[in-house]
Write a structure and sequence with these properties.
The protein is globular. Helix 2 runs antiparallel to helix 3 and helix 2 runs parallel beside helix 8. The chain has helices at 3-15, 18-26, 33-57, 63-81, 91-112, 120-142, 154-179, 185-210. The longest helix is centred in the last third of the chain and has 26 residues, at 154-179. It is mainly alpha-helical. The protein is built from eight helices and no strands. It has a single domain (3-210), classed as Up-down Bundle (Rhopdopsin 7-helix transmembrane proteins), CATH 1.20.1070.
Length: 216
């Protein structure tokens, strides 16, 4: 994978969020609660990617942006799942989980992986936790007493996207700092694959904001 192709793929991955964001804003008055929660995540992703790309173009280190974004991202993901998993976990569970994660992220950036380093410890933990939430959601679906078409459930598409994204990138998040210290061909290949998986996640987000749960 050439450096130029890697750059183009990364750019597409960064700006792809504009598509579901525009659809969500266009349908804002018709969005269901879970779709509105997804909109908050999409806005956050858009802002973070914009800031990170501006810093990158100015040849500045953009890792600090992702250190703080991880904390906000996990809070928004918990917010997405809270109502769907209320029969499995109490509201206090989600609050405690976010606080523990935030403390871990702060300790990590303070003592283990500085703001100028990729926060692989935090993203690895984030991956495990989101996969746990994703599997919990599928279990909750199996426990439902009433049937409703899955393809009309926005959270089903969001959840499937999360499971694919975090499962695919868990190993990458874990080994990033130790294996890919230089921007060589292998690094471009792996992060190119990451960009592809991210685009797939955005496609699932787009479906999630497009579907109408109340459709007859």
């Amino acid at each position: 994978m050439s450096k130029e192709f890697f750059g183009n793929l990364s750019l597409i991955s960064s700006i792809a969020v504009i598509l579901p964001l525009c659809i969500a804003l266009w349908k804002y008055r018709r969005l269901q609660p879970v779709q509105q929660k997804l909109l908050y995540l999409l806005v956050t992703i858009f802002v973070v990617e914009a800031v990170a790309n501006i810093l990158w173009l100015q040849k500045e280190n953009n890792h600090p942006v992702y250190h703080f974004y991880s904390i906000i991202e996990f809070g928004l993901i918990l917010y997405l799942y809270k109502d769907a998993l209320k029969r499995l976990f109490s509201a206090r569970f989600f609050i405690v989980l976010w606080i523990v994660f935030a403390v871990f992220a702060i300790v990590n950036m303070s003592f283990f992986q500085s703001l100028t380093t990729f926060n692989s410890n935090v993203t690895t933990l984030l991956g495990f936790l989101v996969i746990f939430l994703s599997l919990s959601y599928f279990y909750a679906l199996l426990k439902q007493e009433t049937y409703s078409p899955l393809e009309r459930k926005p959270l089903f598409w969001i959840n499937a996207g999360f499971l694919i994204y975090f499962s695919s990138n868990l190993l990458l998040f874990f080994i990033n700092n130790s294996m890919f210290t230089e921007a060589d061909e292998m690094s471009h290949l792996v992060w190119g694959l990451h960009a592809i998986v991210n685009i797939i996640l955005i496609i699932f987000f787009t479906i999630a904001v497009w579907v109408n749960p109340n459709q007859n």
